[in-house]
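User: Predict Carbohydrate kinase's structure from this.
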Amino acid sequence: MKIPVIAIFDIGKTNKKLFLFDEDYKIVFERTARFIETKDEDGDTCENLESLRLSVFDSLHEVLRNKQFDIKAINFSTYGASLVYVDENGRPLAPLYNYLKAYPEELKSQFYNNYGGEENVALSTASPVLGSLNSGMQLYRIKYEKPELFGKIKYALHLPQYMSSIITGKMHSDITSIGCHTNFWDFKKKDYHHWVYEEGLADKLAPIFPGDGVMQSTFPSENYLTGVGLHDSSAALIPYIESFKEPFILLSTGTWCISLNPFNNQPLTKQELDNDCLCYLSYQAKPIKASRLFSGFEHEQEVKRIANHFGTTVGKYKTTKLSVPVIQKYLPKGELRAHFETLEDTHYDFSKENLSEFKDDIEAYHFLIFTLVFKQYKSTQLVLKNTNVKRIFVDGGFSKNQIFMNLLAMVFPETEVYAASMAQATSMGAAVAIHKHWNTKPLPTDMIALKLFVSPVKN
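Assistant:
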């Protein structure tokens, strides 16, 4: 008896993965690939689109030959901010330019001067000024720097929708990609920003297809229901939105720590924008306010510094337990949250600490986490305030860090703080988005494992 499954391609910057989920959302097969990057015409590194396309076909052929599985549907979750320029047959006309590619200052000034200034555009599109990371700016650049290429483009597809198109032969846009710091979308109008129409770019954007809808595949046959593809940050939130109806924040931790609040639909303010807040659109086209911190990167750098200074190994700190006597050295006499509120956002900077002033590495590491929780409190507060959120779910690397989780519980005393774990959240989100089309069972209630943390110290 074959197992009914959904095939999800999860395409990150580094690893490209294929997962098969059964109807209980258990992973029954996985495959990982890594490709050598190629270079664009300027010598900048970029994704090898042809390797990616062939890898999808090879992987699908492999699982189709496997008699264990019955593929019911296919979907994609990929990194965002990347556009594939295709002709009327869906074939790429140019490299997949890297979103880290430097953006010309002159062109940036021309754009913002023409459309009301950086602050106005950023507020209406919920997009901080990020150069090439605003994918709309990539298409704008093509228009002015490569007019011949621009003329040949049928559609500019975000990467998830390009991946879906190679299976379906149909070209679409998706709201999770359009709504993520692209400069394309006017959150108030719920339509493309007027600059998109004025520049003639709306014609280069394929029709929007619902994130929870499916199309018929053309490859490898017409038997497979296929989703339109989703932006990975939005996909990771879907299992939580489907599992929990009470208001919550998801703190997704990795290199970036992103606080996502699907229950905050207040327009972005200038202060929030200045503090690196933005809005995403969910697959149901609802705004999700988010704030970002580069904490995972900071943690990685500072742990190396601590290990070098004290002659230890970086791996030691993965299992360091909270020491209440050590952490109490850094706690104020009153409530921790009230203390943090009195401090400027820049009050703590561990990189400036002289490590010789700490008694040992454990003391230094505790203080590092204390400073990161301070920054996290300030960042999460930006999307938490004035909402009725009562739970914070933390997933990713910091959810396994006992010191971080205990301090977070201490600084949010009126909010339940949970470590949440789920196998492959972005892939599962892409599967759950089209659940009703392929799965005969109800959504399982145990997709996400939760562990409650409480303050270790009365404060």
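The first helix runs from residue 49 to 65.
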